[in-house]
Specification:
The complex is a heterodimer. Chain A is mainly α. The model of chain A has no long low-confidence stretch (mean pLDDT 84). A two-stranded antiparallel sheet of chain A has the order 1-2. Chain A has helices spanning 2-36, 43-60, 65-88, 96-118, 143-165, 167-177, 179-184, 189-215, 224-235, 240-265, 269-284; strands spanning 134-136, 139-141. Chain A has a single domain (2-284), classed as ABC transporter involved in vitamin B12 uptake, BtuC. In chain B, the strands form 2 sheets. A 6-stranded mixed β-sheet of chain B has the order 6-7-8-3-9-10, with helices on both faces. Chain B is built from 9 helices and 10 strands. By secondary structure, chain B is of the alpha/beta class. Chain B has helices at residues 44-52, 79-85, 102-108, 116-129, 146-158, 176-193, 204-210, 228-233, 235-242; strands spanning 5-14, 18-28, 33-38, 60-69, 72-73, 87-90, 164-168, 196-200, 213-218, 221-227. The chains are: A mainly alpha, B alpha/beta. The A-B interface holds A 164, 167, 170-171, 173-174, 177-181, 183-188, 292, 295, 297 and B 52-54, 57, 79-84, 88-91, 95, 97-100, 104, 107-112, 140, 142-143, 145-146, 156, 160.
Chain lengths: 298, 267
């Protein structure tokens, strides 16, 4: 009996950890979609960029992990703003399909550039966190998992505060709701777009760094960009809370599916489960759990 | 007295071809309420958008003439700098941010302000003028009543510490009682804060009741402008905007051959 429950809890916990990373990346994705209505197919590459830069700073330049981490955030911010300014801003007013094609091209180019610079073999971060698992209510949890979970939660909370109380955060929400209202309030919309990309790049690279510390880095990291779709569709494309909840749910779901169905179906379920779920979700609730519900007064 | 805003003979073109304003001029004096009357499609809203700079986001452009605010040209400036200079447009149709709470909406209005203490003070001022909003502060703005939404958008505008507020149809779709309440508050704000208003209204009687000067617009230009007292006396304004022929006397059914009577300003 206890064996069953602890197996379930173990899967659940791992799911939470993975889900927290999904939540971060999904948050970045939704941020861009919400304020600029661009579906960013290069989200996974932003994550990869963060992971590789942090690794390079730590390993090649021998900067202590915490500093290279902060530096990476800075670089990501710059990259996000730069991409918006040089590649996406000229596309304002173009049809949605062309903008989406641009982000797909961007993803390919970024991935190739990263491979040219850092190669294709898997690299690992120097062990920063202890390998010794921590005992917790009869469950085992790796230290890095604990860190990643709490870190992701802190990020999510910080962004919650940012959107609720800061002037820039409120401005981003206004812009996302209606650009013309934003204009009348004196909000500089182009700056908001750049900010959305910059913040999105930052959260993605945080996700990348955490993942890199868990699994090592290779170009498969970019697949995380695809994993984001089930999360945001589940949560609702235009909802920040939805992205976070969706991230956690998909993470947990994927792990439970893997744990329980893999032995029966012979493996691979974990990777497929989110997409199966995506299809089901699109059929029964296409706007997601928290998708925009138009408020209508009678 | 020199006006704070002067629009000099501007021409506005949408999408490079559609001529909307053809030589529009007006002035707003410091601390005054000025109103623009006119039919649908006369170009009232476009005039406001030209002043606030919003026109540029709609592919419109001031192609001729100039707009000056405190002596500075603003017709080439973008809305973000025009708001900073003290002009705030409250758009038609109660454009609240529906998925933000009332308080967040008000707070967002202070985007151009930096000082947190001032923001707090300004917010209290907004609640002072619109006490109805206090109990609704935590409610999503999409769920509050139409009158409350109108109060919210005017209150939100005050947060930017404007010198001139451009109000577009604040009475639209509201009950007469609410409209009276809102117009009273506007008058009070005008008196106490010295904020000038440029008011666009379909409800001419109402607009003339609080304004000191009025412009009548038709087909993209001003056809008549005068003090409110004189406008109220003008036969044409009475006939076409106030719905009276001679004061107090209702029109007989036979005279309703409206189309036969030409407006005197059309030559």
């Amino acid at each position: 009996m206890t064996g069953n429950i602890s197996f379930f809890l173990q899967l659940f916990l791992t799911g939470m950890v993975v889900g927290s990373i999904y939540a971060l990346v999904a948050l970045g994705f939704v941020l861009i979609y919400k304020s600029t209505s661009i579906l960013n197919f290069a989200q996974g590459e932003l994550l990869m960029f963060g992971a590789y830069v942090c690794l390079a700073l730590t390993v090649e330049l021998n900067i202590p992990f915490i500093w290279s981490f902060l530096l990476t955030l800075f670089f990501s911010f710059a990259l996000g703003a730069l991409l918006e300014r040089t590649i996406l801003r000229p596309m304002i007013g173009e049809s949605i399909i062309s903008v989406i094609m641009i982000t797909i091209a961007l993803s390919t180019v970024m991935r190739s550039l990263i491979q040219i610079v850092w190669g294709t073999e898997t690299k690992v971060f120097p062990p920063t966190f202890s390998e010794e698992p921590i005992h917790f209510l009869g469950l085992f949890i790796a230290e890095i998992h604990l860190y990643s979970l709490s870190f992701a939660l802190i990020c999510v909370a910080l962004f919650g505060l940012f959107f609720k109380f800061s002037s820039a955060g409120l401005a981003m929400r206004v812009t996302a709701f209606d650009q013309q209202i934003a204009h009348t309030m004196g909000i500089n919309i182009k700056r908001i777009f750049a900010l959305a990309w910059a913040i999105s790049a930052i959260v993605s690279s945080i996700g990348g760094i955490i993942l890199g510390n868990i699994n090592g880095i290779n170009n498969l990291l970019a697949h995380m960009g695809l994993k984001v779709f089930p999360c945001v569709i589940l949560g609702g494309l235009d909802s920040i809370i939805g992205a976070i909840v969706g991230g956690f749910l998909i993470g947990i779901l994927e792990n439970l599916a893997g744990g329980y169905l893999d032995p029966i179906l012979g493996g691979g379920v974990k990777d497929v489960a989110p997409y199966v779920f995506l299809v089901v979700m699109l059929m029964i609730k296409p706007y997601g759990l928290f998708g925009k519900v138009l408020i209508e007064r009678l | 007295m020199t006006p704070i805003l002067s629009v000099n003979n501007i021409q506005v073109v949408y999408k490079d071809v559609i001529l909307v304003l053809k030589g529009m001029s007006l002035e707003v004096g410091e601390g005054k309420i000025v109103t623009i009357l006119g039919n649908n499609g006369a170009g009232k809203t476009t005039t406001l958008k030209a002043i606030s700079g919003i026109l540029k986001s709609e592919d419109g452009e001031v192609t001729d003439g100039s707009i000056e605010f405190y002596g500075q040209r603003i017709d080439k400036k973008y809305p973000e700098s025009i708001v900073r200079m003290g002009i705030f447009q409250v758009m038609e149709g109660r454009r609240v941010v529906e998925d933000m709470t009332v308080e967040e909406n008000i707070m967002a209005g202070s985007h151009t302000q930096r000082n947190r203490k001032n923001k707090k003070k300004d917010m209290e001022m907004v609640y002072h003028y619109f006490p109805r909003l206090i109990e609704r502060r935590k409610v999503m703005a999409g769920y509050i009543s139409g009158g409350e939404q109108q109060m919210l958008v005017v209150g939100r505008a005050l947060m930017s510490r404007p010198k001139l507020l451009l109000l577009d149809e604040p009475s639209m779709g509201l009950s007469p009682l609410l409209v009276a309440e809102i117009f009273n508050i506007i008058k009070t704000i005008n008196n106490e804060k010295g904020i000038s208003f440029l008011l666009v209204e379909q409800n001419a009687r109402l607009a003339l009741s609080i304004a000191s000067h009025g412009y009548v617009m038709e087909n993209g230009r001003i056809v008549l402008d005068d003090t409110v007292e004189k406008l109220m006396d003008n036969e044409d304004v009475k006939e076409f905007y106030l719905g009276l022929t001679e004061v107090g006397k209702k029109k007989s059914y036979r005279d309703v051959k409206h189309y036969k009577r030409r407006k005197r300003w059309l030559t």
